[in-house]
Each structure stands twice: as C-alpha cells, then as structure tokens.
C-alpha cells in the first residue's frame, strides 16, 4: 500500500536509487546512460517516490524542438498494481502540455508491451500507426532485383519538391529515426537534414525513397518509402543495394538496410528468412 507519493525530475543523486530498482530488466540501458539522460537538454527523466523509495521512472525526449516522445517507463516489481505507471505518465503529459514549444505528445510502444499499452489506453492517447522493424540481413535470400537503378537527386531543390508533397500532411507517419516515427510537419525536414539524406526517384517520377544513416545498437541504412509496393517497384531494391555499398564504405561492413513497414507492406516481403524482425511498434499521440 502506498500512502504518499512525490514525482520530481531525477538528478545525479538518484543514480544509486535507479540502479537498485527491481524492474526485472536485465542490463537496463536507462541505468547505463542515466547521467546522459538527466543532463541532456533533449531528454527528461522523472521519478515517482514513495517516501524515499524510487518506485517508478518515466521520461520523454524532444525531437525537432516540438515533438515530445514519452518513454523509458519502468516500475519496481515490488510495487506493481498500484497504478504508478499511469500516475507518472499522466504527470509528464501535463508537464508537456504546459510547454509552449511542444506541439505534439506521443509514445511508441511495442505490440506486446501490454503494461505500457494499458497505460496509454487509460490516458486515451490515440493510436496512429503500427510499424514492423525489418532489417535485411541476407540479400542472397531475396529475389534477384530487376529494373533500372533509380535516379539519385543531388540538389536541395529536387529533394524539397518531394518533401513538399508530404510535409503538411500529418496523416503521413515519417520514421525520423529507428524507433522514432512522427506525423509529418515542416519541422522534420530541415535543409541540413535533407542535404545529408540520399533521395532517389523512379523513372516515372511518381515514387521516391530516402536512405539515411542511423545508429542505435546496430548501424543502418534506414529506408523511408511511403507506398506499399516496396518489393514490387522495378529497380528500387537494386538502388537500395547499391546505396548500401556506399554506406558500408563510409560506416563499415556491419551496416544493414532497415525498413519500418506497415502491415500491408510487411505482408508482401518475398522471403522472411532474409530479414531480422522485432516485435512491431505502435505509435500513439496527438497534436496539442
């Protein structure tokens, strides 16, 4: 039974407390990068305390100055069943609502993370999109690519032409990074980002693809393609294979093509054995 609680931002003085939580998470990355999370301007980490006992943790990260992505929710297993996760997430949402710079509030949670999904449902965060992380680990198990390589767009003007078709349509979910998709807005597409990203256009000029470097635990040539004919478009896979080789020259051989696929595209993968999959992630959120 918990009678009194306090929620506050965590500080370096709480490092031992979070390390001693019994969350059941082996090698918890939040513990490993704790100091970075509490000192970075892009991240915030809160703790819910019962007396002096840290019993639940959650936070958020800010992307592009306006997207507040909730996350890092974990609770001490000795205190489960008291609604603590809901309480701390609700508190953090209220903090984000008060921040005029934050325009969107959301969370990205794996399909089978039932405790986190229950919290989001209780707090009525709308479900937006389910995406399947798919990393291509064995090209030899894919069909031989056909068609001509797509045209690489070199100028910012050419890239902007395509971005202009999506940046004001917030029904488009754009995977900005691995694990961090967002509804589109102009803030996602700064010139300095577009200049770094590789853009390709098909011969009919009715499709485009983006390839950008990303690194989480692994290194990725992260592909963004917004249609469900990814594996049917002539020349597209050949284009991605060639671009991957360029990425490997720059970032090393342990770099892999990564997609974040909605259901309809996931179901069209020609050979699952060519890929490494994760549990799908479900994006929730809303504009303030």
Give the SSE layout.
Elements: E1 6-9, H1 15-19, H2 29-32, H3 34-39, E2 43-50, E3 53-63, E4 67-75, H4 84-98, E5 104-110, H5 114-122, E6 127-136, E7 151-153, H6 156-163, E8 173-177, E9 180-183, H7 191-196, E10 198-201, E11 208-215, E12 219-224, H8 236-251, E13 255-261, H9 263-266, E14 275-277, E15 281-287
Parallel strand pairs: 4-5, 12-13
Antiparallel strand pairs: 1-2, 2-3, 3-4, 5-15, 6-13, 6-14, 6-15, 7-10, 8-9, 10-11, 11-12
Domain N-acetyltransferase: 5-143
InterPro entries: Acyl_CoA_acyltransferase, GNAT_dom
Protein name: N-acetyltransferase domain-containing protein
What does this structure look like?
This protein has 288 residues and is of the alpha+beta class. The protein has two domains: 6-125, Gcn5-related N-acetyltransferase (GNAT) (Aminopeptidase), CATH 3.40.630; 132-287, Aminopeptidase, CATH 3.40.630. It is 25% helix and 33% strand. The protein is built from nine helices and 15 strands. The chain has helices at residues 15-19, 29-32, 34-39, 84-98, 114-122, 156-163, 191-196, 236-251, 263-266, and strands at 6-9, 43-50, 53-63, 67-75, 104-110, 127-136, 151-153, 173-177, 180-183, 198-201, 208-215, 219-224, 255-261, 275-277, 281-287. The strands form two sheets. Strands 1, 2, 3, 4, 5, 6, 7, 10, 11, 12, 13, 14 and 15 form a 13-stranded mixed sheet that branches. A two-stranded antiparallel sheet has the order 8-9. It is elongated, with a radius of gyration of 21 Å. The model has no long low-confidence stretch (mean pLDDT 96).
